[in-house]
Amino acid sequence: MIKVSDTASKKIVDMMKDDGFDAAQDYVRVGVKSGGCSGLSYELKFDKELGENDKVFEDNNVKIAVEKKSFLYLAGTVLEFSGGLNGKGFVFNNPNASRTCGCGESFSL
Q1: Which spans of this chain does the record mark as coiled coil (predicted)?
Q2: Which of 6, 46, 60, 67 has its CA 20 to 30 A from that of 14?
Q3: Strand partners, 59
Q4: Contact 106/39 with Cβ under 8 angstroms?
Q5: Are 30 and 46 in contact (CB under 8 A)?
Q6: Which residue ranges make up each domain of the chain?
Q7: Global pTM?
Q8: 84-92 contacts: CB < 8 A, separation 24 or more?
Q9: How confident is the model at residue 35 (pLDDT cuts 50, 70, 90)?
């Protein structure tokens, strides 16, 4: 399962609306791809459709779609939004990551 913090949920709903998506029926697609300074990097985008290999979760009024192969790396992750002095953006708090880079956009197992 992937969780979404209250702050991230509010930001996602607002951003989806701004981009022409409806949080009640569309999805936040999260994934993992090769790359980044630690070996793997996170992906985050909005999507209107599901693929045949997607797992779907709903938490805090957000529907999350994850391809099965990415889910192996993301199980137990909490998606948060940080607006502090270090910059604004989404943060993946991933219990599976053994090492993350300074920017928080990539990780390794």
Answers
A1: none
A2: 67
A3: 62
A4: yes
A5: no
A6: 3-103
A7: 0.80
A8: 90/8, 90/11, 90/44, 92/30, 92/42
A9: low
Q: Which residue has the tokens 């090492």?
A: 99
> Which tens digit of pLDDT belongs to each residue from 41-97?
889 999 999 999 999 999 999 999 999 999 988 999 999 998 766 667 888 888 877
Residue, of 99 and 11, whose pLDDT is higher: 11
CA angle 91, 66, 58 (to 5 degrees): 80
Q: Looking at the DSSP assignment, which residues form a beta bridge with residue 52?
A: none
Taking alpha carbons only, the member of 85, 1, 84, 69 closest to residue 31 is 69
- Here the tokens at position 90 are 């989404």
Distances in whole angstroms, Cα of residue 61 to Cα of each of 6, 7, 69, 70, 87: 9, 12, 24, 22, 25
Distance from C-alpha of 104 to C-alpha of 53, rounded to nearest angstrom = 27
Looking at CATH, the fold of the domain delimited by 3-103 is given as: Hypothetical Protein Aq_1857; Chain: A; (2.60.300)
